[in-house]
């Protein structure tokens, strides 16, 4: 078997002994390695993708992309995933507010309204969160033992839970906007 060094520019002279299946496999592997290296490098550069960098640790198609679910649920998951869901952490970026002042408008906890506060802590969504977590606990009875990021990894990667997560985010966001609208009146 001929050993192929892809990092050298030397020509392969012993063509008769080349195994083409092997070459194709080796080239594919090399391309995939490069792709993964590029992906990791890009991922680290994108500081705005707060959750993405924490939750996404492997190179594969995400379940919510292929799973059959409503357009709105898929969209909410994608927005949460890419840190573009309009929470104050994101809205404040456009208003050039310091991060530490981007408080949650829906409670008195004096916490920055980021994705973790929204999903796991804000008391405004306690009832909805409780219903969602009961569903999760049917599959993961000890989910509370995990950190929030680990829980989110479970939600995102389990085909039984991903649709429920989408509905949970959608419902909470509806409650959020209804609440903000009601206090502005
Ligand atoms: Zn809150």
Uncertain ranges: none
Bound molecules: zinc ion
Number of domains: 2
Number of helices: 9
Briefly note the structural class of the backbone.
mainly alpha
End-to-end separation: 76 Å
Which percent band covers the strand fraction?
A: under 5%
Give the integer mean of the pLDDT values: 82
- Major sheet size, sense and barrel closure: none
Describe the structure concisely:
The chain is mainly alpha-helical. Helix content is 58%, strand content 0%.
SSE arrangement:
Blueprint: H1 20-45, H2 50-55, H3 63-66, H4 71-81, H5 88-94, H6 115-121, H7 126-139, H8 148-157, H9 162-184
The protein binds zinc ion (ZN).
Zinc ion (ZN) is lined by residues 104, 106-107, 109, 117, 122, 124.
Q: How does this model look, in words?
A:
This protein is mainly alpha-helical and about 180 residues long. It has 2 domains: about 15-45; about 50-185, no CATH class. It has 9 helices and no strands. It has helices at about 20-45, 50-55, 65, 70-80, 90-95, 115-120, 125-140, 150-155, 160-185. The longest helix is centred in the N-terminal third of the chain and has 26 residues, at about 20-45. The radius of gyration is 22 Å and the shape is elongated. The chain binds zinc ion. Zinc ion binds near residues 104, 106, 117 and 124. Zinc ion binds near residues 104, 106, 109 and 117.
